[in-house]
Design a protein that fits this description.
By secondary structure, the protein is of the alpha/beta class. The chain folds into 2 domains: about 70 residues, no CATH class; about 190 residues, Vaccinia Virus protein VP39 (Rossmann fold, 3-Layer(aba) Sandwich), CATH 3.40.50. The chain is built from 9 helices and 13 strands. It has a 7-stranded mixed beta sheet with strand order 5-4-3-10-11-13-12, with helices on both faces. A 4-stranded mixed beta sheet has the order 6-9-7-8. A two-stranded antiparallel sheet has the order 1-2. Helix 4 links the parallel strand 3 and strand 4. It starts with a helix and ends in a 13-residue tail after the last strand. The model has no long low-confidence stretch (mean pLDDT about 85).
Length: about 280
């Protein structure tokens, strides 16, 4: 059934592909199993690219400029992480998309909630360019791309960028994988960013964290937000290979947040279930 649904999706998306339909269809069908295997197993198998130019596709999420020779099209597939859609309901006036990639969830939330201001954080230089283009393509005035990595505070960090699966780019303390490019990037904390923009924790209704192993540091940098928010939903990807899994759950539980595992198996929805008995004022890093 999944294969049939995927083929139907590709055929529908091809309506936006004049002149490249045959190559587009072949590339989509060939790439899917390789991308899935790379993501699940942490591999870097080469992808079969048939297109040699950027192209634009449209689906129910929006309109997207896709870089040729990339996995960008996989990231905006509505069949991928479709089960997460109900969790992306913003009850406040601000959505923080941390690890926005080319903007799937930023565009999804912004189109559904024109009154919500979206801040889309993406440190990868190439991906960020396409994020900006996709915001323009969808004519969204309530999305602001922010070219910086989010961590526990304002600093410099080493950023590792795989040449195949760009979604698996991550902040690292030392080079860990082959077939990756490295660069130094700036980091900010969520609390520091909110303070700079004169925003309060009560303004934020939704946060998404997808940072490939750097989740605990990101959460440590939003203590002020977590303790001061009144109706916050936080969607966080926590991969099975994440070495700080238990520390993440403990850190959130200390601040009164319970976790619900979402159907993807690697994403969790955190909502406040209690107010901590003793909550010290948090510093805004």
């Amino acid at each position: 059934m999944k294969s049939i649904a995927y083929l139907r999706y590709v055929l529908d998306e091809m309506k936006a592909q004049p002149g490249v339909k045959a190559r587009y269809l072949g590339e989509k069908v060939l790439k899917a199993p390789v991308l899935r295997l790379n993501r699940l197993c942490g591999l870097s198998l080469p992808l079969p690219y048939l297109l040699r130019e950027d192209y634009t596709v449209s689906n129910r999420y929006g309109t997207w400029l896709i870089r040729h020779g990339s996995d960008f099209d996989y990231s905006i597939n509505p069949l991928f992480e479709q089960s997460l859609e109900p969790s992306f309901q913003c009850r406040g006036r601000v959505f923080l998309d941390i690890g926005a990639h080319i903007g799937k969830w930023s565009v999804f939330v912004a189109r559904a909630n024109p009154e919500v201001q979206v801040y889309a954080f993406e440190p990868h230089p190439v991906t960020f360019e396409y994020l900006q283009q996709n915001v323009k393509l969808n004519r969204l005035r309530n999305v602001e791309p922010v070219h910086v990595a989010v961590s526990s505070g304002r600093s410099k960090a080493l950023f590792e960028m795989p040449r195949v699966n760009t979604e698996m780019s991550q902040v690292v303390t030392a080079p860990a994988r082959s077939n990756c490019d490295l660069m130094q990037i700036d980091t900010v904390s969520v609390d520091g960013f909110l303070a700079e923009r004169h925003l309060q924790p009560t303004d934020v209704g939704l946060v998404k964290v997808d940072v490939e192993g750097h989740e605990l540091q990101v959460l440590e940098g939003m203590r002020w937000l977590l303790e001061g928010a009144t109706d916050l939903s936080l969607v966080c990807e926590i991969l099975r290979r994440q070495t700080q899994r238990e520390a993440i759950f403990h850190y959130m539980a200390e601040r009164g947040y319970g976790a619900t595992q979402l159907p993807t198996g690697v994403d969790y929805l955190f909502r406040r279930t209690r107010v901590p008995a003793r909550a010290a004022p948090a510093a805004r890093a």
